[in-house]
Amino acid sequence: MTQEINTQAVADVLLAIREKSPLVHNITNYVVMNNTANALLAVGASPIMAHAQEEVREMVQISSSLVINIGTLSPAWIQAMEIAVDQAKKTKTPWVLDPVGYGASALRNQTVADLYKVCPPTILRGNASEIMGIAAQAGAIKGVDSTAASHEALEAARLLVNVWNNTISISGAVDQVASAGRFTQIHNGSALMTQVTGMGCTATAINGACLGVCDDTHLAAVSAMALMGVCGNMAAEKAQGPGSFQMYFLDALYQISPDDLEQRLKLEHHAL
Ligand SMILES: Nc1ncnc2c1ncn2[C@@H]1O[C@H](COP(=O)(O)OP(=O)(O)OP(=O)(O)O)[C@@H](O)[C@H]1O
Ligand SMILES: Cc1ncsc1CCO
Ligand SMILES: [Mg+2]
């Protein structure tokens, strides 16, 4: 279902998360496991972190969405990710991929390719370099500039949307979400977010929460980056540095209201 993308629609997604508390199954990295579970709880979702091959099918079956993050890979985890994605395909559970560090090693590149072979993600959420790397691998663009700004990655996202017909979310100073025919920019956030590890991974987890309550994948992806950005603005007003920013960010996810979104959210829409 395609819905109009505006502040009210984002507020409705937030309220639905708080009302339904969707179970979000995460296979994520060691660095951010605690931060992302706390972020999901603060926004109103229910996190479960589980990566044993023996149980991931059952976890996907009872979850509203699946989040896969390749930040700290090992062979057993990769197998578990493939099993979980296979189960998500069977149960039509929406899933989000965070291709952390794509392009930095053959293992990361191969893992992403193998997961795509099982089933392409409902939402691909990465930074500009990662998205451009995946587009280059898919043959969609010619080369990768590792210092790519998110506007340079938009063309890569457009081509990936054409190949896979899914939603691509590119984070950066301005976040950009691209789906078939639609492209939304989110002008919020704070530079302090780059000084706390795993804010991108947190964004990916929040995408999982939004997908758990919203069938419109573009609206879900925009809502996630809107919540991240506005909470980033709220936290930055109080923080004295990365430590207190992390604390205030978590509080902002817990406290954020439709009014806060109304006052702060800056969305911009374009045709893709
Ligand atoms: N310069 C900036 N100004 C405002 N917000 C920013 C800036 N850079 C990043 N952000 C915000 O920080 C969050 C994470 O985005 P980022 O692009 O840093 O992800 P990432 O590179 O995947 O991070 P990581 O892998 O380290 O977790 C997003 O919500 C984004 O909007
Ligand atoms: C620092 C780091 N290393 C692997 S994953 C991760 C968290 C940010 O993505
Ligand atoms: Mg990242």
From TrEMBL:
UniProt superkingdom: Bacteria
GO term, biological process aspect, one: thiamine diphosphate biosynthetic process
GO-annotated molecular function: ATP binding; hydroxyethylthiazole kinase activity; magnesium ion binding
Name of one Pfam family that matches: HK
Cited HAMAP family: Thz_kinase (MF_00228)
UniProt function note: Catalyzes the phosphorylation of the hydroxyl group of 4-methyl-5-beta-hydroxyethylthiazole (THZ).
Annotated protein name in UniProt: Hydroxyethylthiazole kinase
